[in-house]
Structure formats: structure tokens, C-alpha cells
Amino acid sequence: MATDTSDHERRTVSERAEARLNGEVPICRRCGVEVPSENAEACASCGFDVRSEHRGKMRFWGTLTGLLVMTVVGIPLAVFTGWAALKHRRAIKKGVAE
Questions:
Q1: Which residues of 51-66 are buried (b: 16+ CB within 10 A; e: fewer)?
Q2: DSSP annotation of 26
Q3: Higher model confidence: residue 78 or residue 1?
Q4: pLDDT-derived band of residue 66, with 50, 70 and 90 as boundaries?
Q5: pLDDT digits (tens, 9 = 90+) for 15-48
Q6: How many Cβ atoms are within 10 Å of 29's Cβ, its own excluded?
Q7: 82, 88 contact by CB (below 8 A)
Q8: Which residues contact 8 (CB under 8 A, 6 or more apart)?
Q9: Rounded CA gap, 19 and 10, in Å?
Q10: What is the DSSP letter of 75?
């Protein structure tokens, strides 16, 4: 009796991880489990519809969130740094600092 091993079973852990990162293996976006078949309609673990395309929306909101975080952190950091530099320049003019 011949055993049929799937491509999933023949790959090493690092090869499977690389395939997941490259998008070669379909992955459930809700629970992160590999979907065993590319033509599967739902995840076997959670039932999420793996064929639905939400990547565009997810990428948009992820980018928007990143920009918001950079703005909230970046503006106060720039103001503080500028204020400290101005204070240091004034101290140099007075001859207190080098």
C-alpha cells in the first residue's frame, strides 16, 4: 500500500514558514491556520471565508493607523527636540554652556 504524502508534509518548518510569508500557501486571516487546499471556501478551524478579499481594506487601515501613530509620537518629539535645542543655543549665547 503506497502512502501519498502531501507537499505540506514534505516541507520543513522553515520552508513552510517561507511559503507562508511569500503568500504561496493560503492562510486564514482570522485564526492564522494554514488552509489545506487552495480551492477551500472556508477555514476548517474557525469557518472564516478564506476566499473573501479584505487585503486592500486591511492594508489601507494599517497604513492609516501607522501614520496616525507616527504623527502622535513624531510631532511632540519634534517640538520637544526643537525646544531643547533652542534652550541650549540660548545657554551658549549666555556663555553658560559649550
A1: eeeeeeeeeeeeeeee
A2: -
A3: 78
A4: very high
A5: 777 776 776 667 777 787 777 776 777 787 888 7
A6: 15
A7: no
A8: 16, 34, 36
A9: 13
A10: H
Cell numbers that stand for 27 in this block: 492562510
Closest CA to 50 of 70, 24, 29, 65: 29
Q: Given the C-alpha cell 503568500, which residue does it identify?
A: 23
In sign, the C-alpha dihedral spanning 88, 91, 93, 95 is: negative
d(CA 60, CA 71): 16
Reported pTM: 0.38
Instruction: Give the integer Cα–Cα distance in Å for 20 and 91.
Output: 56
* Residue 27, SS3 per DSSP: strand
Look up residue 97 and give its three cell numbers: 554652556
